[in-house]
Amino acid sequence: MTIRTILASLVICTLLPVAAFAQGTILVAGATGQSGRLIVTALLEKGFTVRAMSRSAERAASLGEGVEPAVADVTDPSSLSNSMDGVDAVLSAIGGRRPIGSNGFEAVDWEGNRALIDAAKAAGVKRFLVITAGSAGRDGFIYTLPFGPYPWKAKAETYLRESGLDYTIVGPGGLRDEPAGRYGVLLTPRSDYVPGPINRGDVAEVMVASLLDDSTIGKTITMVNDITLVPDAWRAELSAFPLD
Predict the structure, then answer these.
(1) How far separated are the first and last CA of the chain, in Å rounded?
(2) Lower CB count within 10 Å: N or C terminus of the chain?
(3) Which residues is 153 bridged to in the sheet?
(4) Cβ neighbours, 10 Å, residue 46
(5) Which residue from 22, 71, 69, 73 is spatially nearest to 50, judged by alpha carbons?
(6) Model confidence pLDDT, tens digit, residues 157-183
(7) At CB < 8 A and 24+ separation, what contacts does 75-78 make?
(8) Is 20-237 CATH 3.40.190.10?
(9) Which residues, 6 or more positions from 79, have their beta carbon under 8 angstroms from its beta carbon?
(10) Nearest to residue 49, comparing CAs of 109, 91, 95?
(11) Domain residues of the chain, as ranges?
């Protein structure tokens, strides 16, 4: 190997993100939801073993070959421990569907994520990524009214930040059922977040890219689509994104 080849290799290595996991088992909570399914697909494409958590074994099995089903319910903390065995990281894509009740925002977005965080810590899992919302934790937004999910998502964020886990929080704007790469993506700190739409496919890509990059640990990343930006240009911004 020539000196020139060695130097070129070193330069390339410095430009690549620091990989948190080259391979491993990733637990996706909410794996059969609209965002969760896209995350599962993106992880499989990267060569991960995916454990798909769902309340329904049938729905988890519908994700296809190469996925390990894990039947559990985040509103029942006692059901979570077995799903954590051998897990390298947890990606939470759970979300309540109504204001109150067993599938409500408080029960799922807050208490469900709290249960997942506690179960991950008890199992020795170090890495935890969660999808919340761009508007969570921002004072003065109409979106933060008490009957919405955002105050509960904000509580989950605070709990995760204080958990001692290596965390990344991804707060998307209004979710659209469209694939990644159609538009540019604007990444901003929570303090600079301005509401807007974002494709679910882009959210999945940011989640998986964040898992693969240790520099995203300790960061809260909000995101919306921006047609003035080049698709995928956001990938170069992750390492320079500010810590919380």
Answers:
(1) 43
(2) N
(3) none
(4) 15
(5) 69
(6) 999 999 999 999 999 999 999 999 999
(7) 75/102, 75/103, 75/107, 75/108, 75/111, 75/112, 75/115, 77/115, 77/118, 77/119
(8) no
(9) 71, 72, 73
(10) 91
(11) 20-237
